[in-house]
Amino acid sequence: MAGLVLKHIYKVYSGRNTQKKRSIKALVNKITKKQEQKPAVEKRSGKFVAVKDFNMEIEDGEFIVFVGPSGCGKSTTIRMIAGLEDITGGELYIDGVLVNDIAPKERDIAMVFQSYALYPHMTAQQNIEFALKLRKLPVEKKDKDGNPVLAIDKKKIKELKQKLLNVQYDLEDAQDEETKALLSERKAAIEKDIEYYSNTPVQAYVYRHMKKEDIAAKVQWAAKVLGIEELLDNKPAEMSGGQRQRIALGRAMVRGPKVFLLDEPLSNLDAKLRASMRMEIVKLHNELKTTFIYVTHDQVEAMTMGTRIVVMKLGVVQQIDTPTNLYDYPDNKFVAGFIGTPQMNFMDVKIKKSGSKLKTEFEGGQVVNFDLSKLRKIDQSLLDGGEHEVTLGIRGENIKIAAAEAKSGSYLDTTLSVKEILGGTTQLFIKLSEGGAEYIVSLSERNDYMSGDTVRLTFDEKYIHLFDKETELSLMGRETGN
Question: Can you name the CATH fold of 4-26+44-136+209-317?
Answer without folding.
Answer: Rossmann fold (3.40.50)
